[in-house]
Amino acid sequence: MRKAERRRHLLNCALKVFARKGYHAASITDIIKTAKVARGTFYLYFEGKRAVFEELLDETLSALDTQIKRIDPSRGPSGVLAQMEANLDGVFSYFMGNRGMLRVLMSEAVGLDNGFDQKLNEFYGRLLAIIKMALEDGQQMDLVKSKINVEVASLCILGSIKEVLYQQAMDAKVPKQQIVIEEILRYNVNALLSEDLLKKLGGKK
Amino acid sequence: MRKAERRRHLLNCALKVFARKGYHAASITDIIKTAKVARGTFYLYFEGKRAVFEELLDETLSALDTQIKRIDPSRGPSGVLAQMEANLDGVFSYFMGNRGMLRVLMSEAVGLDNGFDQKLNEFYGRLLAIIKMALEDGQQMDLVKSKINVEVASLCILGSIKEVLYQQAMDAKVPKQQIVIEEILRYNVNALLSEDLLKKLGGKK
Amino acid sequence: MRKAERRRHLLNCALKVFARKGYHAASITDIIKTAKVARGTFYLYFEGKRAVFEELLDETLSALDTQIKRIDPSRGPSGVLAQMEANLDGVFSYFMGNRGMLRVLMSEAVGLDNGFDQKLNEFYGRLLAIIKMALEDGQQMDLVKSKINVEVASLCILGSIKEVLYQQAMDAKVPKQQIVIEEILRYNVNALLSEDLLKKLGGKK
Amino acid sequence: MRKAERRRHLLNCALKVFARKGYHAASITDIIKTAKVARGTFYLYFEGKRAVFEELLDETLSALDTQIKRIDPSRGPSGVLAQMEANLDGVFSYFMGNRGMLRVLMSEAVGLDNGFDQKLNEFYGRLLAIIKMALEDGQQMDLVKSKINVEVASLCILGSIKEVLYQQAMDAKVPKQQIVIEEILRYNVNALLSEDLLKKLGGKK
DNA sequence: CATGAATGAGAATTCATTCAT
DNA sequence: CATGAATGAATTCTCATTCAT
Fold first, then answer.
1. Are there at least 3 beta-carbon pairs closer than 8 Å between B and C?
2. Does C149 sit within 8 Å of D164, measured CB to CB?
3. What residues form DSSP beta bridges with B193?
4. Which CATH number does the domain housing residue A34 bear?
């Protein structure tokens, strides 16, 4: 029991350090000082810097995977909207409780080589796949403009979300979560939805 | 004369190394081997690793600043569109001739501390300011939906562009430049322009 | 009672580990894993790695001291031969039942500093003393060539025995014990015995 | 030029340290302190402790290989004796000029794993092969007793030489080189030579 | 007695930077 | 100017030993 706690403590401290200094500048010394633990203790729980980081990364990515659900098109336009909102909300809420990891992911996890990049890119790949599928379903159901290039549009959507998160990580002043999500949704919905649908929905949102 | 050439040569070689290995993994040894220059020679031209990188970064950011021009709303809707396209084209074209720097910027430049982050964020800040101004002008001229939250929308726009560039840096298969730019434009125009305007422009694009 | 058993168990396991990995490469972790005992338990019975090894060494050397008896020259030439054979047999038999310790002694025990070297050298010193005395007695009784330099000859004898043991420890193919002992004896007897005696004994062996 | 000198200096200092403390107890710190050189300098010349040691070992073994020549039986009994003496003299003389390496080889090189053992055992294997061939040639020419088991006898010969060297490495008082060699020769010759030959040579030696 | 988590001294190694030639 | 050998601070990692439960 104690052991699991210590482990958690070390993970938290490591995250704190990674968030403050970045992966490369972070040293084991930093981590153990933060955790008030002896050098050897660290190695009792983790193989090294790479390993703690990987664990934190895995943890985060799988938490995010849990938050993000495929969009089920059968529930109709407003159902789709609700699902998109739920996904966004899940991601933003997760990061609000994990500002440290947000900073790390947004500013360090890329360019680490070590196979971290691969994990992260695989994650983005999964996101893109979900977005693309939703777009294609949308086009078939005539909800989404048929002209749109799904490939590029999905990048735009992903990018719009990432950028907002990035600015939050950088401590830029960003409107509060509720508003941000609404706006991201509005933005992308406007960009995507077919004219017919926009007219119908016009009154609501 | 010779001196300036050598300096340039070193900068190019350093960029090659940074692009291949990333800032941290790049060593002076890598750079001087690539440049076929003695260790001491490097320090004759630069204060150190940090300094070469900074110079490359400054160079790139100011080149980009040159490519990107304020949007002059006085030229009317299609003029604005053309200006946006010109900006996008400038940025994409610049990076197509500097894949190395694209990789560096997209995967390493953030999270380096060292003040590099600050420079990059200032640059993004300038971009955002331009975008925001354009949006505000657009709203005043009733080209852009008034409902839109300019703050968030400008992040979305920036993000959509960055993401496409990011995927290009990661060697993901992305449609070719001309199409990508068109699509980004279309996407953002749809997202932003007022319904009236969309109808008018509908025929063109 | 239990205590003595555990102690013995630990010694055996430590020996196993030392034989497999050598003194330096052997870790306490190896020993306690082999013994299926907790870390602290080990230190309950021994002061440390050094101490277990020392105990194993002492044990072996005193067992060997017991096997090796002074040569009593009063029993005549064939009696001397029998005593030499008995000594050799004792040593070889001991090691056949303790291959682990043979490996340790032959390949690690020297060069450990720690005072182990001293113990081992004292043991070899005792052996040499016995051999030397036998040679000197032999010379006085005109059994051993008078020309022979006792100092060097005793080293040669010791060396011939050690080398055979060394090769056995290294798993080299060596004829079986009975033959090896016979041959070592023959070799050294030929080297040492006076011509007169050789002629007399010629018929027997 | 300077570089080769430094390298040599480091090798010498490393040998000094290895001879004093043994391979395992020797630290890079010891070596660089002895050499009065900075930490990094050491790594400029060698990959690590293992590598310096390997170089010293290779150097020694190939020097020894050079000293030791096959015995050409065609030059007759006294020629063979002279060749044996030359070999012994070569080995002993080499070690008198390299006491450090003698200590290392005799007390540490075994049990190092790392592949050092293999090298050493291969060397001993080569020696044994030379000795065995000489014995077999001798038996065919009726110089060496036919009864003798060549396998064991060659171990005895090797052992007698190694033991004398070992005692010298341990700083035991051993008669001086000339005498030692003579005695080792006498010892082994007596053990080996056929009775006929012994009688003939009897007068000479 | 037994346990095993915690400790921290010590060893190896890297690499940006300096400086004598 | 150019060179590249030398430097040493900083970092990671190991493992014998201790001690609270």
1. no
2. no
3. B144
4. 1.10.10.60
> How far does D44 lie from chain C, in Å, by closest CA?
27
Same structural domain, A95 and A148? yes
B193, B151: one domain: yes
Q: In the listed set A46, A62, A80, which residue is the last one of a domain according to the structure?
A: A46
Residues A53-66 have pLDDT tens digits of 999 999 999 999 99
- Last residue of a domain, which of D29, D46, D63? D46
Going B136 to B138 to B143 to B144, the CA torsion angle's sign is negative
A37 Cβ within 7 A of any nucleic strand E atom: yes
Note the strand F nucleotides within 7 A of protein beta carbons: 1-20
Global pTM reads 0.86
Residues C125 and C32 in one domain: no
Q: Which chains touch D (3 or more CB pairs under 8 A)?
A: C
Chains C and D touch (3+ CB pairs under 8 A): yes
What is the 8-class DSSP label of residue A47?
S
Number of H helices, E strands in chain B: 10, 0
**Total domain count for chain D?**
2
Q: Are residues D94 and D147 in the same domain?
A: yes
The CATH number of the domain where A133 resides is what?
1.10.357.10
Render pLDDT for D37-90 as a digit per residue (tens, 0 to 9).
999 999 999 999 999 999 999 999 999 999 999 999 888 878 888 999 999 999
Question: What whole-number distance in Å separates Cα of residue D112 and Cα of residue D126?
Answer: 20
Identify the domain containing residue A40 by its residue range. Answer: 2-46
- Residue C43 contacts strand E, CB under 7 A: yes
> How do residues D164-190 score in pLDDT, each as one tens digit?
999 998 888 888 899 999 999 988 888
Residues A55 and A35 in one domain: no
Spatial CA neighbour of B191 closest among B152, B140, B162, B137: B152
**Mean pLDDT across C35-57:** 94
Nearest to C152 among D106, D121, D180 (CB): D180
Q: Looking at this protein, which amino acid is placed at residue C185?
A: L
Nucleic acid strand E: bases within 7 A of protein CB: 1-20
Cα gap C201→C204, rounded to integer Å: 5
User: Is strand E in 7 Å reach of the CB of B205?
Assistant: no
Distance, in Å, from the CA atom of A59 to the CA atom of A42, rounded to the nearest integer, reads 19
Quick one: D67 and D167 in the same domain? yes
